[in-house]
Please model this.
Amino acid sequence: MIPPRPAALALALCLALTSCRTLVPDPLASARAALAEGRRADAAAAVESALHEDPRNADLRREAAEILAAAGERDRAVDQLEAAVQWAPDDPSLWIALGELERDRGHLADAYGAFRRAAQLDPDDLRAVSGWALAAEALGLREEADRAYARWAELEGEKEPSRR
Model:
């Protein structure tokens, strides 16, 4: 057997550590490209491929949800965000994204729950608090809406809350 040359070993190690990922296409990049070209089914399939590789990655699920929602797959997008909050329940941005998607689908009770949770996790997040206020008001939860509007006013530096 011929002993390997140090330069060949170094090159092999370098390639193994850096270039292998560039040889395998990024499924989310493929999904974004397919979506940009109007190929919604291909975008959704690429998202599924990405999730198959790393199903417990909450950030990946959030991005997959954005792609699916843009592709018109709102129910599947909600499924992805619901899974994401299972893996990262203390991430207010996931709850906000879920609340916005539920609101856009007309599921106000679900939107309210998501926005309320986001506001509990980060009471200084304007999107969480405003979503909570608007959803509580739409559901007729007057006292809670008043509290949320008051917090919203505080965040915006106003003295009196105003209905939006």
